[in-house]
Amino acid sequence: MVERDEQARIPLGRISGVHGVKGWVKIFSDTDPREGILRYAPWLVGPDAHPRRIVEGRRHGKGVIARFEGCEDRDQAALLIGQEIAVRRSQLPPPRPDEFYWFDLEGLAVVNEQEIDFGRVGHLFSTGANDVLVIQGDRERLVPFVWGDVIKDVDFERGRIRVDWDADF
């Protein structure tokens, strides 16, 4: 069984720049929709996971902007550029039965329907059409995360994903 640490830091984005002169920062958000990152509080910012409270935040063009408590000018905001934004796992809503957080899939073993071991999920990425499992084993495999057609079962109790995928592909 795969244990889930409710206090684990889950990255949701990063501070990518400054906006204006009053302490606002640009946010690169990994949430969908992008402004969904604003629903979480507090944010854990930077390598020391310093909790930061958002005073204001909103969608801005294709991105998100926010202002932190105590961040009053452009110089203070500039010190935050490049910092990771994370939350505790316990802050995230539980996924629906047919949904998965990517970080929950990372590290799971992957086998096909013939019980051939492909290795473990290293990470995932999105192509726009679908998400893709990057499996590290005897070689790297890219397997589309298409529920029903390719992904047959995700079993957190056994710590594995069963796929309908040819071992030679």
Structure description:
- The relative contact order is 0.17.
- With 169 residues, the chain is mainly β.
- It has a 7-stranded antiparallel beta sheet. The chain has a 6-stranded mixed beta sheet with strand order 11-10-9-8-13-12.
- A hairpin with a 4-residue loop joins β1 and β2 (24-29).
- Helix content is 5%, strand content 45%.
- The chain is elongated and about 60 Å long.
- The longest helix is centred in the middle third of the chain and has 5 residues, at 74-78.
- The chain has 2 helices and 13 strands.
- It has helices at residues 74-78, 102-105, and strands spanning 9-19, 24-29, 43-45, 50-52, 54-60, 63-68, 84-88, 109-112, 117-126, 131-136, 140-145, 151-155, 160-163.
- It has 2 domains: 9-90, RimM (Elongation Factor Tu (Ef-tu), domain 3), CATH 2.40.30; 102-163, PRC-barrel domain (SH3 type barrels, Roll), CATH 2.30.30.
At the fourth CATH level, what is the homologous superfamily of the largest domain? RimM
Q: Could you tell me how far the N terminus lies from the C terminus, measured between alpha carbons in angstroms? A: 29 Å
* Radius of gyration, CA atoms, in whole angstroms: 19 Å
Strand content: 35-45%
- Overall geometry: elongated
What is the chain-wise order of helices and strands? EEEEEEHEHEEEEEE
Average pLDDT, rounded to a whole number, is 93
Biggest sheet overview:
7 strands, antiparallel
**What percent of residues adopt helix (DSSP H or I)?**
under 10%
Highest-level CATH class of the largest domain = Mainly Beta
CATH architecture classification name of the largest domain: Beta Barrel
Number of domain modules: 2
- Which residue ranges are poorly predicted, with pLDDT under 50 across at least 5 consecutive positions? none
> What is the subunit organization of this protein?
single chain
- Side by side, the strands of the main sheet go 4-3-7-1-2-6-5
Count every beta strand, where a strand is a DSSP E run of 2 or more residues: 13
The secondary-structure class comes to mainly beta
Given the structure, what is the number of helices? 2
CATH topology of the largest domain: Elongation Factor Tu (Ef-tu), domain 3
